[in-house]
Amino acid sequence: MIRSELLQALAADNPELRAEEVEQVVDIFFDEIAARLAEGGRVELRGFGTFSTRQRESRTGRNPRTGDSVEVPAKRVPYFKPGKEMRERLNS
In the chain, what percentage of residues exceed pLDDT 90? Predict the structure, then answer.
């Protein structure tokens, strides 16, 4: 599902909301998740899963075009762990 499909599904389920309001709700939802992760926190949605970040160490990578070695700096990356209910639905 892509963002536009999500907006259409939410609009269909909530006909009392205008399209702009549905889009605003989705924007706020994703912005709040991103802001919390940027602060180093985590977001738990019961029955769905948990969003958090993981630390990646610096490493030596390789430029695929030239084959030269390139230093890749340490960074934080987003991580998602599905909840128990999500795993059960996927494996049933």
Answer: 98
Residue 74 neighbours by CB under 8 Å, 6+ apart: 55, 56, 57, 58
Q: What is the pLDDT of residue 55?
A: 96
Residue-wise DSSP of the chain: --HHHHHHHHHHH-TTS-HHHHHHHHHHHHHHHHHHHHTT--EEETTTEEEEEEEE--EEEE-TTT--EEEEPPEEEEEEEE-HHHHHHHT-
| CA dist., res. 55 & res. 79, Å (int) | 10
Q: Which pTM was predicted?
A: 0.78
Residue 13 pLDDT level (bands cut at 50, 70, 90) = very high
